[in-house]
Specification:
With about 300 residues, this protein is α/β, with parallel strands linked by helices. Helix content is about 30%, strand content about 20%. It is globular.
């Protein structure tokens, strides 16, 4: 495919979420920059993918799937349905209108631009795959509800990126993540997370619904802290779970000279109040985790009752 043909194909995609460098001087600037994507790839801390099978859940435009292919994976599958079902131009317009107005959007799957029979949002994935002559396979399905039989126990490495906090049932979806990971395989999770100073050792999840307070996005539900994420992964059957990227360091608290003087005076007078001048902070961040499935166990060893 020559440069002109590449440009003509790429121009037919109304909205790119992932950026792409297609060669021949053609770079597509999507919602996520190439620099950001490369940084996120590095944060995954993946093992050598040569000869491995890889599943990219909720692949969208397929950048991570194609990157795994270039890293030597022998088979890569990109799975999506929700983002592929949306007309992305209309979706972004609707989301930004609500954000500007300070209102919570209706569930996106209830909007007229959600058209699963047509899959208007799949054009970026298809186009990038065609331009790059990629061998990434496609699976159209809602990972949260679809039958897993064709995927069960199949993949050495499973990417579950930017998805968990969108799930109303996070534990149930992690259970399904375990099922598609091959015995001895690795699941890599990246998600919105919460750090609460002083409660790092207590498993907690921040709930965004039904007000969807995080980013005014009606698809946002849960944000675990690091220990909750690890414990959920172990609860669904993974043999080991490691937080590979945790919360950033707590910022150094500072108080004004005036507040410091007041504190000293209260102490001297024996009237220091019980509350601190600096309250514990709640900090959102992106967590990364590696969950390893035992090579010896072919079924989920720690049964969590199905819903």
């Amino acid at each position: 495919m020559n440069e002109v043909e590449k440009r003509e194909l790429a121009a037919k995609v109304p909205y790119w979420f992932h950026s792409y460098d297609f060669g021949d001087g053609l770079t597509i600037e999507g919602h996520k920059s190439l620099d950001k994507l490369v940084q996120e790839w590095d944060l995954l801390k993946l093992p050598n993918l040569t000869g491995k099978t890889v599943l990219d859940i909720n692949t969208w435009d397929g950048w991570f799937a194609q990157r795994a292919e270039r890293a030597g994976a022998k088979r890569v599958v990109g799975l999506d349905w929700y983002m592929w079902s949306m007309d992305q131009t209309e979706h972004v317009k609707y989301y930004l209108q609500n954000k500007a107005a300070g209102t919570i959007p209706e569930p996106y799957h209830a909007m007229p631009y959600f058209r699963p029979a047509e899959l208007p949002g799949k054009i970026g994935f298809d186009t990038a795959r065609r331009i790059n002559s990629s061998r990434v396979e496609e699976v159209v399905g809602d990972f949260a509800t679809m039958t897993l039989d064709p995927l069960r126990n199949q993949f050495d490495v499973v990417l579950y990126l930017g998805t968990l906090y969108h799930m109303a049932d996070p534990l149930g979806n992690l259970r399904r993540l375990y099922e598609v990971t091959a015995p001895g395989g690795l699941a890599v999770i990246e998600t919105q997370a919460t750090a609460i100073a002083g409660l790092e050792g207590v498993p907690l999840c921040e709930n965004y619904g039904p007000l969807h307070s995080y980013n005014a996005d009606s698809s946002n539900w849960w944000s675990p802290n690091a220990i909750a994420l690890r414990q959920m992964l172990l609860a669904v059957g993974f043999d080991t779970a490691e937080i590979t990227v945790g919360p950033p360091p707590e910022p150094i608290a500072t108080i004004s000279k005036r507040d410091a003087l007041r504190a000293l005076l209260r102490t001297a007078l024996g009237k220091l109040v019980a509350t601190s001048l600096v309250q514990p902070s709640i900090r959102p961040y992106r967590a990364y985790a590696h969950a390893r499935r035992s090579a010896e166990k072919t079924t989920r060893p720690n049964p969590v009752p199905a819903p």
